[in-house]
Amino acid sequence: MQRQFTYPPSFEDSLTKALASYQLTLKDSKALAKCVQALSDFFIHKPDDATPWHETWAQVAYLCYYLPLNATRLGAIIEEAEKRNFFAGLERVIDFGAGLATASLTLSEKRSFKFQLIERASEPQKIIEKFFPQFQAEEWQRTFSAPKLKDPGKTLAVFSYSLTELSDIPDWAYQCEALMLVEPSTQQDGRKLLQLRQKLLENGYHVWAPCTHEGPCPLLTQSKTDWCHDRVHFAAPEWFNKMEEQLPMKNRTLTMSYLLMRKTPAQKINAARVVGDQLKEKGKDRQMICRGSEREFLAWMHKSKIEQEIPRGVLVEIPDDIQKVSNELRLAKKIEEYL
Ligand SMILES: C[S@@+](CC[C@H](N)C(=O)[O-])C[C@H]1O[C@@H](n2cnc3c(N)ncnc32)[C@H](O)[C@@H]1O
Q: What domains appear along the chain, each with residue ranges and CATH number?
């Protein structure tokens, strides 16, 4: 029961054409990996500097590494959003810090929105317009000033890996009906996102996912180290695996921290989110879940002979009569996924 994702198939043709403009192909594993390593080193050594979009190696690295990986993560979040009917009534998207339009490209594969992109560098727009003709933006904006909000009540503001330097969303975003916030699943960024969740709840937003409740986040309030993050398996194509063989970092699974929020309340659901990996302990297995402001675990004793693998990130139905021992909900039979 793995949750497997990949980037939209239409990207492959665009990536091939874009790389050809640098005299590269998807099979040039070593040359591609060198560019990825250079951008990765840049992010590690200069975390506060702007993405060096003017550098050819940074463009190549984004195209063959960060774009496919982030689009795969976003694909999983978009699938969750679709399950919750999160996009109902939304017509416009503002993609802040759009980079190579990662979020907009991925969303446009599933839904027809009107897209406004905000990106301070000019190179990404040129690459997207030339090599991703299937995607039509209504507008690219380069300034940091507030975008023109055309219909805020039908607008989704997207922040995909673009909040890292900000402690809050910009003022204009508070006028938008819906928010999709995606951050690296590091302890620091993840916990910052949980603090922002609290602030957004206080400012009239409702959380649609991953939370199934609007109480204080137990990972933030009951722990000093936890942070909420999802994990999916990456169904990588062969060219990606070959490139990755040349790199120290491996991406068989991808993690991300995210929040989907709207001013409209979400439909109440009687389910819990699985927010941890399975922990094998003496005599029992445990897995962290979230359904309220308590930090809780599902637990099943080995003597009960329950064999199950619950993917991190899914929703599960908690039986009303479940036995609770301390912070453990003891399962008497296999858990059902909430669909
Ligand atoms: C880490 S990249 C994320 C790109 C893309 N959203 C993704 O998910 O792959 C952050 C981007 O935000 C842009 N950026 C940062 N601050 C910005 C600002 N104040 N206004 C517009 N763009 C900004 C950077 O140029 C960079 O392309």
A: 4-262 (3.40.50.150), 272-337 (no CATH)
